[in-house]
Task: structure prediction
Amino acid sequence: MSSQVDMDKIVSLCKRRGFIFPSSEIYGGLASAWDYGPFGVELKRNVKAAWWKSVVHDRDDMVGLDASILMHPQTWRASGHTENFTDTLVDCRNCKKRFRQDQIGDTCPSCGKKDFTEGRAFNLMLQTHLGAVEDESSVAYLRPETAQGIFVNFPNLLNVTHRRLPFGVAQIGKAFRNEVTPGNFTFRTREFEQMEIEFFTPPEEAPEWHRKWIEGRFAWYLENGIKKGKIRRREHGKDELAHYASGCTDIEYEFPFGWSELEGIANRTDFDLKQHAESSGKDLQYQDPVTQKKFYPHIIEPSGGVDRATLAFLVDAYHEEEVKGSPRVVLKFSKALAPVKVAVLPLLKKKSEIVTLARSIKTDLQKDLVCVYDDTASIGKLYRRQDEVGTFYCVTVDVQSLDDKQVTVRERDTMRQERVSVDQLKRYLMEKFQNQSAVE
Ligand code: GAP
Result:
């Protein structure tokens, strides 16, 4: 069995099977913009649901938020993004190519000359104008991170939740960055989704919570199916830290293009609340209900990319195998993440009793499990098709089913087949999904 995977195979499978399409393809596509197709959108929803369950619903110390993408422009001055959220660009005077200074050495990667312009700062925030008049006063930004929506809502969140420290806020939403060098498929794009947590702690507890969140977030990727050895933690050196962070550990995945960041878990100290308090004139301190002491909480921020996590789960699930002399491509997603749980396949689409039984099985199952129905090819092809999108079980209705009221259930990874009676089918499948661990 081979598990060789390269990005071309992933990109091609994603297009062919409806996970991810190039954006506005009929016009030639738009660099670094991608659309999630029928299976991609299910996969991405499952990634977000697994995250939300793990960091909000399964905990006692977290709540959720969905803040606006557009925020008061002062937010970005206070956060430091207007000034600091920049890449330094240089141009090669010889070949006229433009590069991010931190991504190249002394010589031009394109022509090999050593004749660069002075570096100049390029702000990554995408700018727009609100309202009918386009002038300085109407400038707004598409948020480059979801985090600030949580910080500016800190007093609202305290008021409505009556929380004591430590507690955290989770948010999933779009973010935008005018990346100079987008690429590697959905890994680095200009529009992407983040899943971020801002965890507010007493200052003295921040290092311990930082450690706990690094462990917890690392475990989440493994629990959802990433293979051991394909992810690792990497602590930032002092010179790589963002302007707001006192420490940061990345969780990295070994993509075909190398080890790359999935998520950063930063200790943001009291930087954000202090900055916004100063800029807004509002008191953003926390008052301890017992001691009455007021102070700025410190913030631990596990910040991940939905698109990057989805890509890692796709790459990690990809397997090529040889079955009876022919190749089989199978996406071995965990049960929680598989975009489709069950496919119902009639063996003979011309036999109306088979179709009627298969349709009624699907109608019954789809109330509780994401199902598809497919009768557009031979059974061998239908199985391969479902393997390629990672469907966990295939239920085949055949001529014998009409007599013995049983169907064949085929398991994706082992390809083992079992006859199960139609009346027991739903219970049988539900038990498989409920009683076994997500990774199986
Ligand atoms: N609030 C902190 C923050 O935004 P970041 O390291 O800049 O930190 C967090 O971004 C995560 O967002 C990254 O680990 C990555 O998963 C995702 N991300 C950042 N830029 C991205 C891009 N251009 N395309 C796709 N995902 C991106």
In short: The CA atoms of residues 89 and 101 lie 6 Å apart. The longest helix spans residues 38-57.
